[in-house]
Amino acid sequence: MSLLLAGDIGGTKTLLSLWRPGGERPELVLEERFASADWQDLAPMVRHFLAVAGPVAGGVPAAACFAVAGPVEGGRARLTNLPWVLDSAGLARSCGLPLVELVNDFAVLIYGLPHLDAAQTAPVREGQRDPQAPLLVLGAGTGLGVAMGLPTAAGLRAIPSEAAHGEFAPRSAAEWDLKQWLRADLALERISIERVVSGTGLGHVARWLLDRHHPGGDHPLSGPARLWSEAGDGPDRADLPAAVALAAAARDPLAARALELWLGAYGSVCGDLALACLSRGGLWLAGGTAAKLLDGLRSEAFQGPFLNKGRLRSTLEPMPITAVVDPGVGTFSAACRARMLLG
Q: What pTM did the predictor assign?
């Protein structure tokens, strides 16, 4: 039976796994985690993995799909946080693989969505999905991922998007104040959507509220917020957004307000993008916040702004929203795409 090779390539860690095509969904055979920085390139890592895992699994993979943290153009990808330049044809030759495809690590989720089971998802909003219509996946994590899926005779086709880097459009005086504060605090000429609508954005919203209401640093989150800001994007940066979510769950007023503002901005952006591509095939929410903030996504704080699109509210009302709660969805989706490559 054919084997599939799937990889989720990130700046910190890389997951490589072997799968069997299976029936309705690929079946995991084995998986190994690697520290990306320990390797000069992806090819030697893959060769090492196949030399050890291949004999155990029963052969050489017939197809491989690697989800990479960065844009992919013409079968080539330059990773955002690694000095690697990947080429699908070169990887195929170097690793002895018949078929290799590189896909952006968020766009690849499109290929996994039709095969997710109930344990990998959670309903956010009930609705009626049109299987012939486009679908949309958004993921608020460190940044904001956006991708569309178009139904074709050969299955879904993933369309990457950089919509998260559009301009953040304030809807209220509070959001306007937040945007101006971020411009000054981050020394930026413009504020993109993902500066607010992302896990990182939740941290920024909390910092803004702390600056406005507790300038003397007397709030329990003041210290963590200062350390988080000073750490920049370093690997030892504490998780301020998680601390804000925990404080909100404990009914801290400032943290609850930060989460409410963030959910409203997220819901509004989801509604805007759902209208942009008329995603009657459904809206899927992935990323690190989907499972952690499920109650918030089901609340009026998120769903009210999602639907608040004037005359187009009726277009969004039937649209189902589903959260992807499986942390391993990246490699699973890459395996689904590798199976598609076999035709």
A: 0.92
